C-alpha cells in the first residue's frame, strides 16, 4: 500500500470538460459530417395499434435528392430484432421487436418506413410521399384491463398481455418471516394504491446516430450512454464480427437512463448504411424524441404496511403492475425489479413480500429513467410512512426513527437480502432538521391551521437509501441479467510524464474527466492538468460497461485506483535502479519515490516514464512500460443515503404549490469533487420535484401521446424551483479504497416523496391523505375542496 | 423538424408588404415565436413568408395626443422598457413581463402576439381591457378595428387575407387609473391557464369605472361585463370586490385541456379577478 498526500480529492475543481460542453463547440454526433454522407428520415406510426395492410415507398424514391426508401417488409429478413438483456423470469413473454414495423404497429411513433436522401430536408419532405394503409386494431392502455380475461391483446400471437410475474418473499428466501402472518395479526394495517405516472427522460441533446461503412468496418457514432454494450449487441444482432464494429459515443448531452438503450433508430441507420454502402445520419427532432425514445416509471403500486401501535413496522407487502409499453427494451423488465430491494428502504422490517407483473400496452416502451425502480420504491414507502405516522399519532420523523437501522448496526442485512455497508441515518436527519428549522416551521404550520389561512404550510419528510455501484456480477447473474457489472481503467504514462487515462465508463455530462483527473493526480502525484481522460470510443476504450446506475465512480473509480497502484508498483523497481537502492527501501509520496530517511534524494514518476521510454538502463527483466490496466468487479453495492425535507406553501384557493424551502442532506461516502456532487444533487432534486409537480406523459383513449411537445410535457425551468440547501454527512464506503458511494440518482430518489408529503401534510386538515402525481394546481385545489384527488 | 419549402419576401415598406401578401397562402412573419414552431411541426405550410423585419416604421412607441401608438413590430422587450408605455399603459407593460421568457420577449412582438390571437396569449385580453384600436393596412387602404371586434375566434382575427397589422393605438390612462394583470400558469414560462387584465378608475374613494378582460376563458378574450357593472359606482372594499368577482366567469365558455378543466378555469377566473382588482386598488392579496 502506497501512501500519498491528498491534494486534489475533495477539492471543488471546476469541470475541465465544461467549456466545450457549454459552448457546444465539440463533437456531438449531430456534428459528425462525413464525405458522401446521406440523411435518413423515419416515418412513424400515427396510430397506436393497427395492421399494416399496404406500404408503398416508390413515389418517395422518385423525388429529387432521394436515394432510397424502404419499409419494414423490405428489410424484414435482415434488420434483426431489438434486444432485451434482462429476461427476469424463465418464462417471461418476450415479443419480437423489429426496428421497423413489418406487419403491425403497436404504439404511436413506432418506425414504419425510411427515406434516405442527400439532405435532411429532402428526406423529411419525401416522407409525405410514402403511402401506408392501416387497419385499426383494438388499443390496450389500462394495466388492469389488459390482464383481465378476454382482454384485447398487444401481441395476439402471445395470447396474453402479461410479460412476467416476479416475486420476492422473505419467508421463502429465508431473509425474514412470512408476510401474510404479519399482516393478519397486525395492530395497524395501512393499505394504499400509489401511481407512478409515466415520465419522459427529455435529455437535452436529442438522439443522433451516424453509421459509416468503410471497407468491412462499420463505425457507429451515437448519442448513447452505452457504447460498449451497443458494440457487442450490434455485432450480435447483425452478425457483424465484433472487431469490425467500432462505436463512438462522442460528447453526449445528457441521458438520465434515456440513452441506456439499443434503439430502433441505431439499427435502422445500420441497415440503411449497409444497404447503400454509404455513411448515413439520423438525428431525431424533439417531437420524435418525446414520442419514441423510451419512457420511464408508469406503475401502479399496491402497498400494505403492518405495524404495532407504537409505530414499529412488522410487515410490508408490495404488489406492482409495471407498464412495459408495447415491447421490451434493453432492461425494461428489470427496472421495477431493481426497486424490489428498496421498498424496505432504511427500515428494519421483519417480513416482506414483493410481486411485480409486467404488462404490455399500446404505448412507447418504458425502460430506465434516473433511479430506475428505486425512486418508485422510495416514493411508495416514504408516502406510506407518513400515513403510518398519522395513524399512530407520531411525528413523521419519529416514526422513521423508531424503525430505521441504527448507525451501530452496520453492516446490516435487510429483509430483501442486501447487506447495507454503512450509514448514519440519525446524523443526516438531525442535520436536515436543523437546516430546515423544523420546529419553527411546525409552529407556523399550527398557526396557519388555527387561523384558517387560505395559504397552508406543509412539511415533507423523505429519507432514502439506494443501491449504487451497479453491480456485483454474481448478483446480476442471479437476477438473470445478461451482462456483468465490472468496470475497467487503463493508465498510459507518456514519456514526458503526462498521463492518459482510458475509462470504460461513458460520461454524458457527469464530469468524469475532472473527477478521474483528481483521483489520478493524487494517486500518481501528477498535476491535475497533466491528466487526459479518454472515453466513449471502443477503439481507445475497447472494454467497459458504461455509465448508468450511479456506477461510474463507485465501480470504475476503484478500477482507476487499482490501475494507479499498478503503475506505481511498476515504477518502483525502476526508481530503485536509478537511485541505486533496494525497492523495499522506497516510499512513494507526492509523485516522488524517496529512500526512507533520505528525503532529499528522489525520482518522480515522470523520471521513471522517461526512463522506460529510453529503456537504455532498466533493471534486468523489467518490461519497458509503466502502463497498467485494471478491471474491478465490486464485492457489494454501495448504499448512500440521506434525508430530504421540503416546506411547501399550498394556496387552497388556487391549488398552487410553492416550495418555500428545500433541504437535502446526503451521505454519499467520501466526496471526490464537492462541486460536481452539488450539481448532481441540484439536478436530481429538480427532476424529482418535476415528477411531483409537473411532468406527465399522457395518452388519450386512442393511444395518442397528448404531451408530445414541451408545451404540454411540462418541464420546469429554474424559475419554477427554489434554492436548494445542501449539506452532507459522511459514512465512507468500507468496500471502496476511496470511500465513495455514488450520487447520480440520489436527488431524484429523495425529492419526489418529500414534495408530495409536504403537500399532503399541508392539506391534512382538509381530510386529504393522498394526491395523484403530478400534483397539478387543479388536483391540489380539488383535494382542498373535499379530500380526494 | 424542418419546415416545408416556402418562398421568402422581405419588404421594406407597408405597401410592399401588402403587395407581397397578394398570394392567398402567404403568411406574415413578425417575431416568429408562434409561427416558426408551427412551420417546424409542419402544421403550417405557407407558400410565401412575408418577413416584416425590414419595416422599421412598424417599430417603436410614440404619443399622439390622448393616445399612445405602438408599432406592431415592437418587441415585447421594447414595450416592457418603454417609458411611455410604463406611464400610460402600465397594465400592458406588466402583462408583457409575464410573456414566456426573456429570449422570447426579445424576439416576439406585440403585433405578432395580437395577430396570432392565441386564446392563452396574455396580450389580447390586455388590448380588450385597455380598449385598444388595431390599425390595419391592406390593398384597399387603412382601417382601425376596436380590440373587442378584432378577436374573432381561436387563432382568428378580423384581419383579411392581404392585410397587415401596423400599429396598436391605446387611450392614455393616467390619473385615477390603476391596473393589474393576474396570470396563473403551471410553469413560469408556460401559457396562461387563466389570466385577468383589470383596470379601475377611482373617484372620491369609490370605483368610477372598471374594465376587466379574461385570458383563456374561451376561444377569444372575454370582457367580464357583469364584474364591470357590479364594480361601477361601488365602494372599493374587499367584500364588494369579492362579490363582483363572483360574476367573472359569466358568459365565458372555457374549454378543458391537459392543464385545467373548464370548471377549474371558471373557478380561477373568479379568484384571479378578485385578486387582480384588489391588487389594482392597492389592497394586494397576500399571494
Automatic annotation (TrEMBL), chain A:
Gene3D superfamilies: Aldehyde oxidase/xanthine dehydrogenase, a/b hammerhead, Aldehyde oxidase/xanthine dehydrogenase, molybdopterin binding domain. One of its GO terms (molecular function) is oxidoreductase activity. Keywords: Molybdenum, Oxidoreductase. InterPro entries: Ald_Oxase/Xan_DH_a/b, Ald_Oxase/Xan_DH_a/b_sf, Ald_Oxase/xanthine_DH-like, AldOxase/xan_DH_MoCoBD1, AldOxase/xan_DH_MoCoBD2, AldOxase/xan_DH_Mopterin-bd_sf. Its cofactor is Mo-molybdopterin cytosine dinucleotide. Residues 23-138 form the Aldehyde oxidase/xanthine dehydrogenase a/b hammerhead domain. The keyword Nucleus does not apply. This is Carbon-monoxide dehydrogenase large subunit.
Automatic annotation (TrEMBL), chain B:
It comes from the Bacteria. InterPro entries: CO_DH_flav_C, CO_DH_flav_C_dom_sf, Diverse_Substr_Oxidored, FAD-bd_PCMH, FAD-bd_PCMH-like_sf, FAD-bd_PCMH_sub1, FAD-bd_PCMH_sub2, Mopterin_DH_FAD-bd. Residues 1-175 form the FAD-binding PCMH-type domain. Keywords: FAD, Flavoprotein, Oxidoreductase. One of its GO terms (molecular function) is FAD binding. It holds the Pfam family CO_deh_flav_C. The keyword Oxidoreductase applies. The keyword Cell inner membrane does not apply. Coiled coil: none annotated. PROSITE patterns: FAD_PCMH. This is Carbon-monoxide dehydrogenase medium subunit. The gene is cutM_2.
Amino acid at each position: 500500500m502506497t501512501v500519498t498526500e491528498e491534494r486534489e480529492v475533495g477539492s471543488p475543481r471546476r469541470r475541465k470538460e465544461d467549456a466545450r460542453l457549454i459552448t457546444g463547440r465539440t463533437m456531438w454526433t449531430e456534428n459528425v459530417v462525413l464525405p458522401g454522407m446521406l440523411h435518413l428520415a423515419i416515418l412513424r406510426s400515427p396510430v397506436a395499434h393497427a395492421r399494416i395492410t399496404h406500404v408503398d415507398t416508390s413515389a418517395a424514391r422518385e423525388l429529387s435528392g432521394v436515394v432510397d426508401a424502404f419499409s419494414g417488409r423490405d428489410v424484414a429478413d435482415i434488420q434483426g430484432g431489438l434486444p432485451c438483456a434482462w429476461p427476469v423470469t424463465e418464462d417471461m413473454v418476450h415479443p419480437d421487436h423489429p426496428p421497423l414495423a413489418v406487419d403491425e404497429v403497436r404504439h404511436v411513433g413506432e418506425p414504419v418506413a425510411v427515406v434516405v436522401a442527400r439532405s435532411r430536408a429532402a428526406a423529411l419532405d419525401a416522407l409525405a410521399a410514402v403511402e401506408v394503409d392501416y387497419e385499426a386494431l383494438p388499443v390496450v392502455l389500462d394495466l388492469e384491463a389488459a390482464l383481465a380475461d378476454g382482454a384485447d391483446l398487444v401481441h395476439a400471437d402471445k395470447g396474453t398481455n402479461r410479460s412476467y410475474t416476479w416475486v420476492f418473499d422473505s419467508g421463502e428466501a429465508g431473509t425474514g418471516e412470512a408476510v401474510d402472518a404479519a399482516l393478519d395479526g397486525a395492530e395497524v394495517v395501512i393499505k394504499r394504491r400509489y401511481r407512478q405516472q409515466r415520465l419522459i427522460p427529455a435529455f437535452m441533446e436529442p438522439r443522433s446516430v451516424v453509421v459509416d461503412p468503410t471497407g468491412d468496418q462499420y463505425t457507429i457514432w451515437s448519442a448513447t450512454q452505452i457504447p460498449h454494450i451497443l458494440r457487442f449487441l450490434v455485432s450480435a444482432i447483425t452478425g457483424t464480427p465484433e472487431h469490425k464494429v467500432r462505436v463512438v459515443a462522442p460528447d453526449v448531452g445528457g441521458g438520465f437512463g434515456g440513452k441506456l438503450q439499443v434503439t430502433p433508430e441505431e439499427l435502422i441507420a445500420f441497415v440503411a448504411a449497409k444497404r447503400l454502402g454509404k455513411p448515413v445520419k439520423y438525428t431525431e427532432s424533439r417531437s420524435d424524441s418525446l414520442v419514441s425514445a423510451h419512457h420511464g416509471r408508469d406503475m401502479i403500486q399496491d402497498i400494505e404496511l403492518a405495524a404495532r401501535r407504537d409505530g414499529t413496522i412488522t410487515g410490508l407487502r408490495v404488489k406492482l403492475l409495471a407498464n412495459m409499453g408495447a415491447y421490451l427494451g434493453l432492461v425494461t423488465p428489470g427496472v421495477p425489479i431493481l426497486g424490489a430491494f428498496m421498498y424496505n428502504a432504511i427500515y428494519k422490517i421483519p417480513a416482506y413480500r414483493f410481486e411485480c407483473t409486467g404488462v404490455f400496452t399500446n404505448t412507447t416502451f418504458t425502460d430506465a429513467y434516473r433511479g430506475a425502480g428505486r425512486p418508485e420504491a422510495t416514493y411508495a414507502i416514504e408516502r406510506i410512512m407518513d400515513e403510518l405516522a398519522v395513524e399512530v399519532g407520531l411525528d413523521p420523523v419519529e416514526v422513521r426513527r423508531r424503525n430505521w437501522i441504527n448507525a451501530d448496526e452496520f453492516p446490516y442485512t435487510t429483509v430483501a437480502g442486501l447487506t447495507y455497508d454503512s450509514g448514519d441515518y440519525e446524523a443526516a436527519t438531525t442535520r436536515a432538521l436543523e437546516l430546515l428549522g423544523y420546529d419553527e416551521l411546525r409552529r407556523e404550520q399550527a398557526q396557519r391551521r388555527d387561523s384558517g389561512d387560505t395559504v397552508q404550510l406543509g412539511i415533507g419528510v423523505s429519507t432514502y437509501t439506494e443501491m449504487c455501484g451497479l453491480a456485483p456480477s454474481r448478483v446480476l447473474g442471479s437476477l438473470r441479467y445478461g451482462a456483468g457489472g465490472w468496470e475497467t481503467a487503463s493508465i498510459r504514462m507518456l514519456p514526458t510524464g503526462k498521463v492518459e487515462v482510458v475509462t470504460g465508463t461513458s460520461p454524458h455530462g457527469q464530469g468524469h474527466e475532472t473527477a478521474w483527473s483528481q483521483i489520478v493526480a493524487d494517486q500518481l502525484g501528477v498535476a491535475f492538468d497533466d491528466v487526459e481522460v479518454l472515453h466513449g470510443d471502443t477503439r481507445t476504450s475497447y472494454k467497459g460497461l458504461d455509465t448508468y446506475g450511479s456506477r461510474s465512480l463507485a465501480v470504475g473509480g476503484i478500477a482507476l485506483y487499482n490501475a494507479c497502484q499498478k503503475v506505481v508498483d511498476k515504477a518502483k523497481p525502476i526508481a530503485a535502479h536509478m537511485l541505486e537502492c533496494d525497492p523495499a527501501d522506497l516510499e512513494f509520496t507526492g509523485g516522488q519515490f524517496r529512500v526512507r530517511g533520505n528525503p532529499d534524494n528522489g525520482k518522480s514518476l515522470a523520471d521513471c516514464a522517461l526512463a522506460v521510454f529510453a529503456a537504455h538502463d532498466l533493471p534486468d527483466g523489467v518490461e519497458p512500460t509503466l502502463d497498467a490496466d485494471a478491471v474491478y468487479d465490486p464485492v457489494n453495492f454501495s448504499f448512500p443515503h440521506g434525508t430530504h425535507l421540503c416546506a411547501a406553501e399550498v394556496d387552497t384557493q388556487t391549488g398552487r404549490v410553492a416550495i418555500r424551502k428545500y433541504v437535502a442532506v446526503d451521505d454519499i461516502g467520501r466526496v471526490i469533487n464537492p462541486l460536481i456532487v452539488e450539481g448532481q444533487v441540484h439536478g436530481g432534486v429538480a427532476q424529482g420535484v418535476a415528477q411531483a409537480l409537473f411532468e406527465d406523459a399522457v395518452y388519450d383513449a386512442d393511444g395518442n401521446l397528448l404531451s408530445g411537445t414541451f408545451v404540454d410535457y411540462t418541464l420546469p425551468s429554474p424559475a419554477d424551483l427554489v434554492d436548494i440547501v445542501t449539506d452532507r454527512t459522511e459514512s465512507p464506503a468500507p468496500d471502496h479504497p476511496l470511500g465513495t458511494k455514488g450520487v447520480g440518482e440520489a436527488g431524484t430518489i429523495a425529492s419526489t416523496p418529500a414534495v408530495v408529503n409536504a403537500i399532503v401534510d399541508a392539506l391534512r386538515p382538509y381530510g386529504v391523505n393522498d394526491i395523484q402525481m403530478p400534483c397539478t394546481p387543479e388536483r391540489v385545489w380539488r383535494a382542498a375542496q373535499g379530500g380526494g384527488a | 423538424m424542418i419546415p416545408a419549402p416556402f418562398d421568402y419576401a422581405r419588404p421594406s415598406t407597408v405597401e410592399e408588404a401588402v403587395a407581397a401578401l397578394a398570394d392567398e397562402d402567404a403568411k406574415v412573419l413578425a417575431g416568429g415565436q408562434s409561427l416558426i414552431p408551427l412551420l417546424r411541426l409542419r402544421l403550417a405550410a405557407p407558400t410565401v413568408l412575408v418577413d416584416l423585419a425590414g419595416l422599421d416604421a412598424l417599430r417603436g412607441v410614440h404619443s399622439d395626443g390622448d393616445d399612445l401608438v405602438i408599432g406592431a413590430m415592437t418587441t415585447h422587450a421594447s414595450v416592457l422598457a418603454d417609458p411611455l408605455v410604463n406611464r400610460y399603459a402600465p397594465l400592458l407593460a406588466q402583462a408583457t413581463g409575464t410573456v414566456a421568457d426573456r429570449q422570447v420577449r426579445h424576439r416576439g412582438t406585440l403585433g405578432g402576439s395580437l395577430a396570432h390571437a392565441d386564446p392563452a396569449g396574455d396580450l389580447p385580453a390586455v388590448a380588450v381591457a385597455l380598449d385598444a384600436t388595431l390599425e390595419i393596412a391592406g390593398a384597399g387602404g387603412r382601417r382601425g378595428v376596436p380590440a373587442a371586434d378584432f378577436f374573432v375566434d381561436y387563432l382568428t382575427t378580423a384581419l383579411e387575407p392581404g392585410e397587415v397589422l401596423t400599429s396598436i393605438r391605446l387611450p392614455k390612462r393616467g390619473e385615477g387609473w390603476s391596473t393589474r394583470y393576474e396570470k396563473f400558469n403551471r410553469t413560469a414560462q408556460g401559457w396562461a391557464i387563466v389570466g385577468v387584465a383589470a383596470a379601475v378608475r377611482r373617484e372620491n374613494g369609490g370605483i368610477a369605472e372598471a374594465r376587466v378582460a379574461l385570458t383563456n376563458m374561451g376561444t377569444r378574450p372575454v370582457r367580464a361585463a357583469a364584474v364591470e357593472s357590479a364594480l361601477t359606482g361601488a365602494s372599493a372594499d374587499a367584500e364588494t370586490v369579492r362579490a363582483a368577482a363572483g360574476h367573472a366567469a359569466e358568459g365565458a365558455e372555457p374549454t378543458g385541456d391537459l392543464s385545467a378543466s373548464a370548471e377549474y378555469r371558471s373557478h380561477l377566473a373568479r379568484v384571479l379577478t378578485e385578486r387582480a382588482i384588489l391588487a389594482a386598488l392597492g389592497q394586494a392579496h397576500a399571494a
